[in-house]
Amino acid sequence: MTAHRDSSAVRSLLRLAPFVRPARGRLLTGVAVAVVASSMSLVIPLVLKQLVDGPIAGRDPSGVWLGGLAVLVLGLLEAGLFGLRRMLLARPLAGVEAAMRSALYRHLQRLPVAFHDRWSSGQLLSRATTDLMLLRVFLAFALTFLVVNGLTIAVGFVILLTQRWTLGLVLLAPVVPLIVLCRLFEERYARASRTAQDQAGDLATVVEESVLGIRVTKGFGRHRAQERAFAALSARLRGTELRKAGLLGTLWAVIMILPELAIGAALVLGVQQVAAHTLTPGALVAFLSTALALRWPVESIGFLLALANESATATERYFEVLDAEAPGADGAGAGPEPVGTGRPDAATAGRTPGVGAAHPAPGTERGLRFERVTFRYPDAAPDAPPVLDGVDLHVRHGETMALVGATGSGKTTLTALIPRLYEATGGRITLDGQDIAGMPRERLRALVSMAFEEPTLFSADVGENVLMGAEGAHQDDLERALAVARADGFVAALPHGHRTQVGEQGLSLSGGQRQRLALARAVIGRPRFLVLDDPLSALDVHTEALVERALREVLATTTALVVAHRPSTVLLADRVALLSRGRIAAVGTHHQLLRASEEYARLMSGPLPARPAEGDAPR
Ligand SMILES: Nc1ncnc2c1ncn2[C@@H]1O[C@H](COP(=O)(O)OP(=O)(O)OP(=O)(O)O)[C@@H](O)[C@H]1O
Fold this sequence. Notes:
Oligomer: single chain
Membrane topology: Multi-pass membrane protein
Number of domains: 2
Main location: membrane
GO molecular function: ABC-type oligopeptide transporter activity; ATP binding; ATP hydrolysis activity
InterPro entries: AAA+_ATPase, ABC1_TM_dom, ABC1_TM_sf, ABC_transporter-like_ATP-bd, ABC_transporter-like_CS, P-loop_NTPase, Type_1_exporter
Helix content: 55-70%
Number of strands: 10
Keywords: ATP-binding, Cell membrane, Membrane, Nucleotide-binding, Transmembrane, Transmembrane helix, Transport
CATH topology of the largest domain: ABC transporter transmembrane region fold
Mean pLDDT: 82
Bound molecules: adenosine-5'-triphosphate
């Protein structure tokens, strides 16, 4: 178990090599400089020996001064070299940390939504911050000193043994028990540090959730309960940290006591040898000075090992995220794939066999088409029925289709399959006849635009938030999109117009205002296909009517699928599809479905009266 842990810790740390490569020149120079600096501490005792046996024994003051000067120069050189090592390493290792952080962030952006469903944000946050900081400290400090101190100890013992092998052996006696102890310690410490780092991630999640959910917490007077939950997690982490400190304390105590005892024994033996004139006082001083110079390298091994272990854990945690890439899971982000030359294996894996044969009749391929699409969430219970179970739907070119269904029927899930936020587990989805599974990401993004039910704004200004909806959009596109979403009025009234900061660190906007900005973001690129998840839900009746009118203009130029809960939204559409039990149960005009489907009529018996004449009129 210990051997396995050792090798796996080393294997984990070796995975840092590609990131460290750009800094390896400086790192090696830094280690070399530290080795030279450290060897100064071993040369000083040799100078002391000459000093004691020469000028001091011979009562030669000028010789003492000279010796003293030599010791001073050596000391200054040691300090200067250690300073140089820091200067050499600081910049490139900060670069390594930054590169690792960027790689993690880039990867997080590309990982499929299913991954983010599974991982808590605190766990990701702690990997991107605490773990990477630990790794920088390891590379800058622990790695160098493990090498340097290991070398110093080896060279020091060679010097001790050549000076006086009998006394040297006395000092070597604690080595075997120390090695056994270090191995035992490593195993336990590694376990504790993994637990502590995971618990720190959980704690970060709680903090993040309570900051984001502060309104709910206050609104429901839950702050005491939140505090208790936080205190419990915090106490757990404290307990683990104390266990780590206890382990380190025990190791440190033994690592300090054993060599001290050995030095004491060597001193007694050495004094006896000096009294018996078999050893000169200078040789004893040199021997003991060398032994004392080795104290720090030996003592440091304990916490250097602890740091190395924590860093191995941090590396494991970092690569758990970086290695996470289900094949084709983010097909839309899985890199460039040729258009129209068939689907890559990864993207087609798990698809319903034989679906390819069921091609639509010629002439009906344009528009958005679902063919026997099935979907099951990766983390759903194995015996749970699939959310979508053979969806067949054709949104004709230029048509607006409303998607209606009971809450939890899978409407949002269905829309999320179009931009491939999730991969369909069976069947296929085509845009103008082209299977989205074989489409390069850029093309899919250019064709399809989305506005989600939860309008998310980033910490940026209003304009930037809208412009991120399309590559290369300009100022006039922004103005048009804001006008279409009927957002131009309230944006102009903001303190700095569309340059007003919004999002977490900016001005708070109302739900309806956010929804209109999300809509502007969806339409700014004039997409061929528009997918809107209940885009009018947060608007008051007056604004809803305004946005509706604007939406009609947009919808007239695209092929759209609009999730609708209310008759007013349904009336924007040419036809309506009813999603029920994982399938499209009925398709028709609003009026037809009201008559034909009891479920639809029930769903639509909302507060707003239907306006059949307008809803049924073909555009
Ligand atoms: N990330 C997820 N992992 C597992 N199951 C999920 C996930 N998201 C949704 N579900 C489940 O899938 C089903 C469909 O959810 P979906 O959000 O698509 O429904 P909906 O029709 O859009 O509902 P609503 O009208 O309330 O917005 C629900 O049973 C839901 O619990």
